[in-house]
Amino acid sequence: MTKNDWHEAVQAVSDAELASLGEPPTDEEVLAFSRGELTGVAEARVREYLVHVPELLDALTAPFPPEDAPSVLTDAEVAGDWKRIRAPIKPARPWYIRKGWAIAASVTALALGGLLMESHQTNRRLEHELAEPRTNLDNRLLLPDGERGLGEDRAATLPGGNADFVFAAALINAPRYDAYAVALLDLATTPSRLLYSANGLRRHTDNTLTIFVPRAFLPAGRYRLVIYGLQESRRDVLATYTLRVPRN
User: Fold this and answer.
1) What is the Cα–Cα distance from 216 to 228, expressed in whole angstroms?
2) CA-CA distance, 238 to 175, in Å (whole number)?
3) pLDDT tens across 155-190, in order?
4) Would you say the pTM of this structure is higher than 0.90?
5) For 234-248, what is each residue's pLDDT tens digit?
């Protein structure tokens, strides 16, 4: 959810609340409010309009110039300005339409607020997890696709459970490069969808590349890990590893 989405939801709620107030206050009501002559429901109603129509509040709180000042507005000019201030205020809709709009806008705001809160909670949980030592890791030695035989299902099946993965992708008879890159693809779509990529990896002395993958990052499905060799402007595919994650 973007900041613009949030502002639109808040504006929708504000518009619905303004419509629920009914017809805008008359000139006499606004002037009586400014002099403190309104009480009870009438006073609360005008105050609500001032909250939702800041232009009206600015007009009421603006200082009056001296009567002999050359810039004093005539009565006709004041009346014209008052009409322009009230013009953006839409007439009241039937009660059933106002109620429906208010409910829909409130539900939308609550839903967007819930998504925003959930996003913040998820980010905080991930930051907390990454700041602590990890246990229950599943270390998996991955052999390239061509090294696992030519069976009908060439995918390496990963075990179920909740343990996170540490993949040790073996490079067999692969030449050495200055650096290496990795890409993780989701095979459920056509073409395959890129889930993750990284450059600048280093090859271990045992000819493997180590990749940590949280279990939650790989729901049930088929995936392909691709290792590239990087040499100046070259990007050569060195090995692929097809994986299958079963349902728990």
Assistant:
1) 25
2) 8
3) 888 877 777 888 999 998 899 999 999 999 999 988
4) no
5) 999 999 999 998 887
> Domain coordinates of the chain in residue numbers?
3-112, 137-245
Cα-Cα-Cα-Cα dihedral of 214, 215, 216, 217, to 10°? 60
Q: Tokens 């400014």 belong to which residue? A: 34
CA angle 163, 167, 171 (to 5 degrees): 165
What's the confidence (pLDDT) of residue 48?
Answer: 73
Q: Which of 116, 138, 120, 117 is nearest to 128 (CA)?
A: 120
d(CA 243, CA 211): 14
Number of Cβ within a 10 Å radius of residue 243: 21
pLDDT of residue 118: 60
Residue 93: DSSP 8-state: P
Question: What value does the mean pLDDT take over residues 74-97?
Answer: 62
In order of 206, 238, 239, the CA distances from 179 in angstroms are 16, 12, 14
The domain 137-245 having CATH identifier 3.90.1720.10: the answer here is: no
